[in-house]
Amino acid sequence: MYPVLSICSWKALRATENVTATNTTMVRNVVKTDNDPPFNGSEFREFANHLGFKHRKITPLWPQANGEAERFMKTIGKAIRAAHSEHRSCKQELYNFLGNYRATPHSTTNATPTELLLGRKLKTRVPEITPPAVNKTVIQDNDWKRKEQMKQYADGKRKATQHKIKIGDQVLVKQQKTDKLSTPYNPQPYTVIKQHASMVTAKTEDKE
Fold it and tell me: What is the 3-state secondary structure (H, E, C) of the chain?
């Protein structure tokens, strides 16, 4: 997990680069964020070009598009609230939570996040029998099957249907309400320029 900068400048992004290099020594190929500030600015675009990763922007104001991160933040919030109610250090409990999470096998993959990322297990104080080596092919198959089951369940519950939006269509984009006179959708139409599976990219003259 990395900090989100409320005011994103090139100097702040270079500082984030230093933190990333010191603690992880790796850069992801694709970084997925929402399409709100500070991730929709020119500074973050320059930062992505500088480090060489692809910035993938999800649909604004639609948390389901970034469900994995949203669900994880809900779990973190629960741990922090529990620490606060018991008058413990929220920062230290957050470290403890992340350490336990990274050392706990996932219900779908049966492997810990550390094993999948770094290829080794974290040493903990819990005694255990040495498990067999992780088979990444089996893990990927199980992960795909579980995600497909969750997708079918969510689509059925929401009665989702295939959209008919095509490149060149004009669409209205949902916006946040700032007062009682705000409309649910931005009255300025966007033009669809790209489509990939369920993701649709649209832009106006000054914004994408």
Answer: CCCCCCCCCHHHHHHHHHHHHHHCCCCCCEEEECCCCCCCCHHHHHHHHHHCCEEEECCCCCHHHHHHHHHHHHHHHHHHHHHHHCCCCHHHHHHHHHHHHHCCCCCCCCCCHHHHHHCCCCCCCCCCCCCCCCCHHHHHHHHHHHHHHHHHHHHHHHCCCCCCCCCCCEECCECCCCCCCCCCECCCCEEEEEEECCEEEEECCCCC
